């Protein structure tokens, strides 16, 4: 929820981006299912940020820069950030689908009662570990 509220704001600050990256790190199971595009986006985000600072200095301080450079660095940063967020949401959906499929398969193979679908994933995993 916090991720979507911050992502769709008209102005995105570096503080919010760093906070969201820390929040993404709190779900390692979803990050394990993220594709290579997520890694590329995470590693590429510092490049437009650094170039933005350089072009900002060149444009405002020395007067030799071009404001179009700033625009395109913001555009590239937002594209990488959107790629990172969308890939993370896709990885979360894959994790949830895998968990539901595992629970459904386990129910079909055994007659044990598992918690409802909306229960915590940790309970399902602990039941699966005890059963095997």
Question: SSE layout and pairings?
Answer:
Layout: H1 2-7, H2 14-25, H3 28-32, H4 36-44, H5 46-62, H6 67-109, H7 121-131
Helix pairs in contact: 4-6, 5-6
Give a short synopsis of this structure.
This protein is mostly helical and 132 residues long.
Structural class: mainly alpha
Low-confidence stretches: none
Count of discrete structural domains? 1
The global form is: elongated
Please count the helical segments: 7
Structural key phrases:
132 residues, mainly alpha, 7 helices
Please give a structural write-up.
The protein has 132 residues and is an all-alpha fold. It has one domain. It is built from seven helices and no strands. It has helices at residues 2-7, 14-25, 28-32, 36-44, 46-62, 67-109, 121-131. Helix 4 (36-44) runs antiparallel to helix 6 and helix 5 (46-62) packs antiparallel against helix 6 (67-109). The longest helix has 43 residues, at 67-109. The model has no long low-confidence stretch (mean pLDDT 79).
């Amino acid at each position: 929820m916090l991720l979507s509220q911050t992502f769709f704001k008209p102005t995105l600050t570096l503080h919010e981006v760093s906070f969201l990256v820390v929040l993404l790190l709190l779900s390692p199971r979803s990050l394990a299912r993220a594709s290579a595009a997520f890694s590329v986006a995470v590693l590429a985000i510092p490049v437009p940020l650094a170039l933005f600072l350089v072009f900002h200095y060149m444009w405002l301080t020395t007067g030799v820069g071009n404001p179009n450079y700033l625009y395109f660095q913001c555009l590239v940063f937002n594209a990488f950030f959107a790629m990172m967020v969308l890939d993370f949401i896709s990885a979360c959906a894959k994790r949830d689908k895998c968990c539901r499929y595992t629970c459904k398969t386990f129910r079909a193979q055994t007659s044990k009662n598992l918690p409802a679908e909306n229960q915590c994933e940790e309970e399902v995993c602990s039941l699966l570990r005890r059963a095997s």
